Amino acid sequence: MKRLSKKSEKVIREMMEDGRFFENPLSVMAREGARMMLRVALEEELTEALGRDMYERSCEARGWRNGYKERTVKLSCGDIRVSVPKARGMAEPFCSKVLSPYQTRMGELEEVIPLLYMNGLSTRRVKRSLKKVFGKRGLSHQSVSRISGKVVEEFKAWRQRDLSGLDVLYLVIDGIMVGVRAGTSEKEAVLVANAFLEDGSRDVLGVALGSRESYLSWKGFFDDLRQRGLKDPLLIVSDGCPGLLRAMEEVFPGVETQRCTRHRMENVLEKVLKADREAVRDDLRKVFYAPTLEHSREAAGLFGKKWRKYPSAVECLLTGLEKCQTYYKFPYTHWRRIRTSNMVERGFREVRQRIKTMGRFRDEERGLATVWWLMKDCQKRWYGVGMTKEVREILDRIRAEKELLAA
């Protein structure tokens, strides 16, 4: 058998060390195809810049070719070596637009890093996941943090956006406890405001750091939304903590409020023995899922008589019950979306799941940006509210009645 040349042996040895000898042939083909296309694009770009093809003589030539320079470029299919053509005698130095100077990897790879980081991978895991793509050395922790920091910059611009052009039907607000600062064991609340818009879609309006029970935190949060141009919604849905309600009354006077029925049911069930909770839950559903307001009030009265052995549970249900029944004033097809704050809670479930592996965030901005990005990502899968002709007529009538009362 003929012995391989030293050069062939060296190539095979390098491929085995890098793991390329056993890789999928399709990856090899993709890499070679990318190298060939990039080489052709660079040659065509230089030909256009010089005004003549290779070996072509022309009086209008704007320079001469001057050999090649080897460059390594990182692609999603692996590293490729490209011979970048050089030129001399030109009025200005030749700089390729396809492969700019000092560029070592394509931008598509950098776009993947924030996605991996924001979807729950730590900086260390992102680096490990991309090691095969970026070669043996991979990326440093600083590079991963810098690239993922682009999300923070995008968040900063988003939190300053103008809200005056949005027509908000329903505003749903809540808070989630997140560890936003490294070096401390305490968790802080991130306040979030979501909205159903006039066209039936959903949108995230605000994300800020604060306290879920603090009047001043909610007041500052609402003031920021107001300063950015947010107009009065038709309804605000919340869990009903005292500080939040006080802030709403000051910043949004005259706006209807809806107490989350799910939170009210949980509060009532906490005051009932475990053996009776399922039966009590069934009766609570008759109150909050009744077909009309009259049926809901009737079911509440029956609940008080049936479960009078739990006076604290009955009192918890009946106190401020009308604030839990505000949704009956609005279109029937919207009841499911506006009688609870599940719209925000569902997003919080995704946030808790994704940030479990992250631990505590390095700083406040990165924590807020992560919550915002995850809520925005969930928004793509959220259902809005139907906006039929009948629904719009009901909403117009509600607005007219509100304006008449204000006058």
What features would you describe in this structure?
This protein folds into two domains: 7-104, no CATH class; 166-399. It contains 17 helices and seven strands. It has helices at 6-18, 25-50, 107-118, 123-129, 131-134, 141-148, 150-158, 215-227, 242-251, 261-269, 277-288, 293-306, 311-318, 335-338, 342-355, 364-379, 389-406; strands spanning 64-75, 78-88, 168-178, 188-197, 202-210, 235-238, 256-259. The strands form two sheets. It has a five-stranded mixed sheet, with helices on both faces. The protein starts with 5 loop residues before the first helix and ends with a helix.
**Helix percentage range:** 40-55%
Q: Provide the number of structural domains.
A: 2
Strand line-up in the sheet with most strands: 5-4-3-6-7
DSSP E strands, number: 7
Number of helices: 17
Q: Report the radius of gyration as a whole number of Å.
A: 31 Å
**What is the helix/strand order?**
HHEEHHHHHEEEHEHEHHHHHHHH
Shape estimate: elongated
User: What's the mean pLDDT score?
Assistant: 79
Q: What is the rounded distance between the termini?
A: 101 Å
Structural class: alpha/beta
Largest sheet descriptor: 5 strands, mixed
Stretches with pLDDT under 50, minimum 5 residues:
none
Percent of residues in beta strands: 5-15%
Element layout with pairings:
Elements: H1 6-18, H2 25-50, E1 64-75, E2 78-88, H3 107-118, H4 123-129, H5 131-134, H6 141-148, H7 150-158, E3 168-178, E4 188-197, E5 202-210, H8 215-227, E6 235-238, H9 242-251, E7 256-259, H10 261-269, H11 277-288, H12 293-306, H13 311-318, H14 335-338, H15 342-355, H16 364-379, H17 389-406
Parallel strand pairs: 3-6, 6-7
Antiparallel strand pairs: 1-2, 3-4, 4-5
Helix pairs in contact: 7-16, 8-9, 10-13, 11-12, 15-16
